[in-house]
Amino acid sequence: LAYDDPRRAVGKRVRIEDGRIVALRLAGETAARQWLRGLWESGSADAELRRWLLAPLSAPPGGATINTDRTLCNCMNVSQSKVRAGIERGLDLTGLKQELGCGTSCGSCVPEIKRLLASQPERALS
Predict the structure, then answer these.
(1) What is the pLDDT along the chain (126 residues), one digit of tens a residue?
(2) What is the distance between the alpha carbons of residues 84 and 75, in angstroms, rounded to a whole number?
(3) Are 29 and 8 spatial neighbours (Cβ–Cβ below 8 Å)?
(4) Residues 45-49: contacts with CB within 8 Å, 24+ apart?
(5) H/E element holding 98?
(6) Integer Cα distance of 95 and 86 in angstroms
(7) C-alpha to C-alpha distance for 42 and 22, rounded to whole angstroms
(8) Are the CB atoms for 20 and 43 separated by under 8 Å?
(9) Residue 25 CB-density burial (10 A; 0-12 exposed, 13-18 middle, 19+ buried)
(10) At 31, is the secondary structure helix, strand, or coil?
(11) Which of the residues 54, 63, 119, 126 has the least number of beta carbons within 10 Å of its own beta carbon?
């Protein structure tokens, strides 16, 4: 699928193969980025949603629920929910790096991981 509006400098591409989104590019207008990313990561491209894939919508039409979990570590494709789950299991920054791989490549996600760690209530020592 393709959409171009040179006057507004908007260009969008979605490639679907075997009913699955395999490539996605949004330029100039990115309102739909979160829910499109959720579709891409889930591997689905529901036929009812296809006509809306290039629309400037910040949420999927019709109240469809799509995983919009934020990717915290782009290098290792680690979601914020995975980091939070690791923190809830008691992992510290070193443990998260070892188990999930986040923060081990470029390191740009480390400050956000530290903020998540700092926002957790201290665990009572037994």
Answers:
(1) 899 999 999 999 988 888 888 888 989 888 888 878 777 777 667 777 788 888 888 777 776 555 557 788 888 888 888 899 999 999 999 999 999 999 999 999 999 999 999 987 764 343
(2) 18
(3) yes
(4) 45/14, 45/16, 45/19, 45/20, 45/21
(5) helix 93-100
(6) 8
(7) 11
(8) yes
(9) exposed
(10) coil
(11) 126
Dist. CA 11–CA 5, nearest whole Å: 6
If DSSP codes are grouped into helix, strand and coil, which group holds residue 42?
helix
Token code pair at residue 48 = 């009812």
Residue 97: enclosing H or E segment and its boundaries? helix 93-100
Rg (CA), the chain: 18
What beta strand segments (E) does 1-126 contain?
2-5, 10-17, 20-27, 71-73, 78-79
